[in-house]
């Protein structure tokens, strides 16, 4: 296995595109090193992007935030402006593993690992996040919800690298939240995850985005769930509709972490709870 | 002291060709009791090989076969216990 | 019997205080050396190849390619570990479990092993071993394995304990029956009868340190083994038998041990490491990965249990029957038998019967796990008692007190109890402020009792006094949870010197006589007993030396407060001689001063506990949170209360993990789905509240200090305590452990749908 | 077979060089090449925290870091907690409160607890419990560990006011 530490995203893309063997990108390494340990991958080349200048920084601009691909969860958790703007995204990022994992795990890595249960992905989608993808030739920006194609599969072509995740500056009276269900209080993979982002107008939901994790091969945007909330002040009828829409949108599997029935049922429960957290964050009165 | 006593056997130790649930033997120590039982019931040896403990008046002895058995004592043969 | 009764009421100077452990500094600084922390010149890395199939015939193992890989020094299969067990089926099972012989009996069963110059080469070599399997039908569920239609795992297994003796093999290794009285008559007397069926899933001890050893065998048959174990003397004997070595020529050193809980009472990789080393003529270090620990070492049984209990309206339990089905993994065990012995042991039930079925399945060979077999039986019995109490309109604690076993009660396994502490623990629970604390919405409280035996066993201890008066205490029982501090305290107590003057060490197998495993809560009980006697032996020598120094008859010397005092007529004005003063002159009064003791520490007491658990259930997700927990247990005498509390808290937490989330999950293919700490969910720090403890001391009259073992009982009550709390919080009676969120939510739904 | 790479790094304040295969974890490199066996392997997959170290001040599982990633970085292990022949207060409190039984998880807990107190000198019980959730202990039920961390935090806060002790 060769180990490279390129000085730019473009150089990283070049290394990956030229490699004829198995090549992997290393950011936080919290997924890659597990796969190495378990013998699930045998890389010929590992490209460590952490030495790329500024890739471990969060840039703030008038448009929003640019979160470098090597920014760890603990750095995200300490970023006051980001936390104020997108508390749901920060919550989701901070739910990925223990403090030890937080010291390494990244949003871009969580996205590229393409696990159906990734915590940050539904939250990023609900917040309208985009991935800045650098290839050997050109750069492109893709909405996060378009990045993951299936378990372990992304839209990245050979040589492409996610350089950063961008989050827009939230519109006024916007609030988001992410909740997941795990059997313990920590150290588990989500059995169900729900991210909700709401925009209010005069105390009423004007726009909503509802995204589920761990209930289908990829994160699921639940349009019917959003529709249930729009025009409401989060009354019980709207919440019940939301829950029903979320449960209906589930297409989960039975596995060691949960059953189809359980995931379907709890998706609705969590959706209600997440909405009730996002609503006051957007300035609404429950 | 004639050393005749009544030994109760847990069901695990009851053999088709062996004693019933209680048996009378002459013995003053655990070792003598065991010898007497194996003399009378040859298949008893298999049970000893699998592990036996002796309860004398409610106290369990697993290993020390020199232990004297007081006359009139309540004696039970029970399976040997493993622990964690 | 016949121990010094006066110690039961003795006033202690050292015992009962909270002293720091002697190995503390090494363990907080990283200096302590565990199983994987030793190295030897020229050592190789050992790795094991494991079966990916639940049950398969091994048609062929081709190791030629692996052997040719540069850097590979030895490859072994069962052919390198010939069967020397001479008809001892127990040993033969151990050998076959260490290395498959013609058949892989479970997912994770070792089939070959390599030793190579480094990790990478060893991993590469494993891939080059070509094993041809023919898959066979498998069964992993205990109830399914008992069916006539189940694939039979061993043709040699004919059920023991049934009449007439079976003529066909089956997966049922043995039937055991215990109890007394007439249960039919007892049920006829009952006003209320409750019958329920329970299931518990398989759990693992989950020690954080994986199995690890460093083995070195010389061509002349001398050998050394450094290993993390609960009993290095037993490991020595077993490994010597399996490998054909002389016991005295195999030196086994127990490393610091990173948790055992019963799982390190059995050999797994050690004989393989020795075989690899013998073939390579180099030291071999074999360290398991976490997945190997889960797949390839011994968890506890999964079970299926029926309980039927009847009671009169006044709470008297008139009859109780349990039928307990326990799987022992791929080899027969006595696990259901142990369950029979413990199921009703907390109670005085005139008519009781327990029937146990020991069953084999295609899972790893079950090992002891802290009070083995008792927690599952207690889950069933203690849950049923709560149901019974509700049915007759009594408080569950009052039903328990009404039927509690006491001194003089006949135990379900036959003998009559001596002084035991179960009633004391129940009364302490009843009076505990926890029982009166207010509960919030969705919260409920449960109580449950538990019993486990203590065992004694062979023990040997040395006590050597240096010329400066400091004392080396040399022990042969592995220190799993802090026992060195307790042993040093006992030596200090006996000798009448400060704790700091005693240093306790664990000897290797060449430096001390045989010691049995640290298992069955015996460490402090039995080594403590040997330490008392070794110290008294040394005191005898000290008195002789003092007599010599004074020139008085030894009968005129007594030992008081750490010094020799002359008591005879005319010696009144002799100043006492301290241990230090006598030790300083030892070279001129007869040589080194030592005490020694070999003992079969029989007469161990019984361990009883009662627990209180408050749980909050989220009715929409089925998730249970432990909000408060109290352990009340009889310790006989707590030598070092810090470590007694630690055993109570640790055992309770393991039980809570089992109650809520821990389980082996097998796929339809018979493969373990969750061999890692991510999905085998042991409790994490944020899952728990502080665990309150109350230590009761009902002395065990057969120990010089009244000690009872405390290591195991605390894992017995939690499953039922949690289940009873959930029943009171959510109104659903859980009969399947772990009571994980999906199971609890399904139970809530079922109740709601039933209207 | 992986290429070995020479890594120059700082471990517990000292300059250290080691050569390790590129696919070797920092945990294995620290244990086998630097000789710091206080870094424990409980799982190798980031689930138990026994191999916790800090990397440039950030708490990580060293099993989830490649050895080669340590080039030019600063690593602190349990062996680096005590200074000048004196135990770190957390180490002393773990002993005083009997916060260890088998002790295999103890190095990881100490590194994680120090990392917590460096960031938050006055954590409440819940904060302590969540900060230590990445460290598994199978012996203690965590009770005495949390008490030890609380006691150390309290004393360190007191000492910070009076003297420079209590890092």
What do these coordinates show?
The complex is a heterotetramer of chains A (286), B (84), C (755) and D (167). Chain A is 34% helix and 25% strand. Chain A contains eleven helices and 14 strands. Chain A has helices at 9-18, 32-37, 73-77, 80-85, 87-94, 99-102, 107-113, 120-127, 223-229, 236-249, 260-281; strands at 2-4, 23-26, 45-48, 58-60, 64-68, 130-134, 139-143, 148-150, 153-154, 161-168, 174-181, 192-201, 204-213, 220-221. In chain A, a hairpin with a 2-residue loop joins strand 8 (148-150) and strand 9 (153-154). In chain A, helix 5 packs antiparallel against helix 8. Chain A is globular, with a radius of gyration of 19 Å. Chain B has two helices and five strands, in the order E-E-H-H-E-E-E. Chain B is α+β, with helices and mostly antiparallel strands and 84 residues long. In chain B, strand 3 and strand 4 form a beta hairpin. With 755 residues, chain C is of the alpha+beta class. Among the domains of chain C are: 9-32 and 456-600, Aldehyde oxidase/xanthine dehydrogenase, molybdopterin binding domain (Aldehyde Oxidoreductase, domain 4, 2-Layer Sandwich), CATH 3.30.365; 427-450 and 605-755, Aldehyde Oxidoreductase, domain 4. In chain C, the strands form six sheets. Chain C has a seven-stranded mixed beta sheet with strand order 3-5-1-12-9-10-11, with helices on both faces. A six-stranded mixed beta sheet of chain C has the order 7-15-14-13-8-27, with helices on both faces. Chain C has a four-stranded mixed beta sheet with strand order 16-24-25-26, sandwiched between helices. In chain C, a hairpin with a 5-residue loop joins strand 13 and strand 14. The longest helix of chain C is centred in the last third of the chain and has 28 residues, at 523-550. Chain C is globular. Chain D contains five helices and five strands; from the N terminus they run ββαβββαααα. Chain D has helices at 26-32, 89-96, 106-119, 125-131, 143-162; strands at residues 4-11, 14-21, 52-55, 58-61, 74-76. In chain D, a hairpin with a 2-residue loop joins strand 1 (4-11) and strand 2. The longest helix of chain D is centred in the C-terminal third of the chain and has 20 residues, at 143-162. The N and C termini of chain D lie far apart (43 Å). The chains are: A alpha+beta (286), B alpha+beta (84), C alpha+beta (755), D alpha+beta (167). At the C-D interface, helix 1, helix 4 and helix 18 of C face helix 2, helix 3, helix 4 and helix 5 of D.
